[in-house]
Amino acid sequence: MYRDPVESLEPLHHRHAAIRTLRVGMIGIGTVGSGTFRVLARNRAEIAARAGRSIELVMVAARNLERAAGIVGDSVALTADAMQVATHPDVDVVVEVAGGTGPARDWVLAAIAHGKHVVTANKALLAVHGAEIFAAAREKGVIVAYEGAVAVSIPIIKALREGLAANRIEWVAGIINGTTNFILSKMRDEGLDFAAALAQAQALGYAEADPSFDIEGIDAAHKLTLLAANAFGMPLRFADAQVEGITALQGVDVACAEQLGYRIKLLGVARRQAAGVELRVQPVLVPATHLMAQVNGSMNAVMVKSDAAGLTMYYGAGAGSEQTASAVIADLVDVARLDGVHAAQHVPHLGVHAHATNALAVLPRAAVHTSHYLRVPVHAVNQIQAVAASLAEQKVPVRQVALAAERPGTGSQVLVLTGPVEQGTLDLAVHALQARAEVAGAVTTLRVESLEG
User: Which of 116, 123, 158, 223 is catalytic?
Assistant: First the structure.
């Protein structure tokens, strides 16, 4: 049997005479919610010692109450009405782990309106509705915490806000989607094409039946939006991000990248420039000797370049029930420490500069300045110099030209690595190259990231 949430939750927890228990209401008891419950119960003493007081789950909203009761037992009040959790007077902080951007927005805003702190792992919610949510939180003086929404087990938000608080952040770059990193690892290690690698990821549970958010780069862009806002104090600009997934990536390019000494990764990049911020997600070539190139399978990694600390890198699991729960509970510990102190001492939420007239703009695609990889199909191997000459005529610096290793069914391929050049200039050069008689098919282009200081 489960307790009726309409009853007072007071008897459900022990209160210390001086510092009372932090009472948590949770919306959703799926993969992340159940992991959060397990870790809270298993590590109760350690968590209380670090938080300075007990943290207790007192109420859960779930679609399937019978299933939920099987997870949390009869000591936690259950309800099918998420709004009841968001507004209940005996709940101090609401943990939203149900997902989605519609009802979740309403629940979170209702919790804030009732003076409750919010912890969420919902990156889509914050990327789309973050400006509204954080403005409401500032108005009420409550915390909105979201470490689990970005890189799961990697405490990158805490690193940006606290560990690197003295620094001016120059750029942030990361492998922040485990599904696509798993697929790219399989394409490289086993020579699979994209469709076969995706099917394997789905069979092993790394990819959903509908993997669009992952493979189209949308999930990574949601996370990058949050990283950029924390790194640069800029508003949430998900709608302005340049997003390219891996669905069009061919196995031949994975192999050609290896031939040139690179590996292809789906990278989220937020880089401060004089005219604004690059905010982009796309498959890029990374030097095979770089630490980021060694991040394989479903693992995540984030690298930060700052003026005082220099280059720092953070590595950890990019998915998982208890891995995400670790981040959710870390946020709860922050709330437990900060609840009751002056609002100015709260962990700062996003959007504090959203009203500023000098808010950083997002650079358009044509203005992004990077090196590039080109794969150019040609009619004959002796036309390699014609390709290089065409690019030079269009003011594209050519750093390396090579013939691709022969592969069945691919014909002759010229591989080019350029020096840094604006995307707009490269686009014009590729258009001119495509029109030449020597070129036998579509030219493939990918950006190259050195990830150096």
Answer: 223
Q: How many domains does the chain have?
A: 3
Long-range contacts of 323-326 (CB under 8 A, 24+ apart): 323/35, 323/152, 323/153, 324/31, 324/32, 324/35, 324/36, 324/121, 324/148, 324/152, 324/153, 325/32, 325/35, 325/36, 325/38, 325/39, 325/40, 325/148, 326/39, 326/148, 326/153
C-alpha separations of 318 from 160, 213, 254, 393 in Å: 18, 15, 22, 44
CATH of the domain at 384: 3.30.70.260
Question: Could you confirm whether 305 is annotated as catalytic?
Answer: no
CA 425/CA 431 separation, integer angstroms: 10
Residues of the chain with pLDDT under 70: 1-18, 340-359, 453
Query: Residue 177 in contact with residue 215, Cβ under 8 Å?
Result: no
8 Å CB contact between 364 and 389: no
Whether residue 300 lies inside any domain: the answer is: yes
Helices within 250-320 (DSSP H only): 251-259
One domain, residues 148 and 47: yes
Whole-prediction pTM: 0.90
Q: Is residue 260, in this structure, part of any structural domain at all? A: yes
Q: Is residue 234 part of a domain?
A: yes
The pLDDT score that the predictor gives to residue 12 is 44
Q: Are residues 172 and 233 in the same domain?
A: yes
206 and 119 in a single domain? The answer is: no
pLDDT in tens, 133-164: 999 999 999 999 999 999 888 999 999 999 99
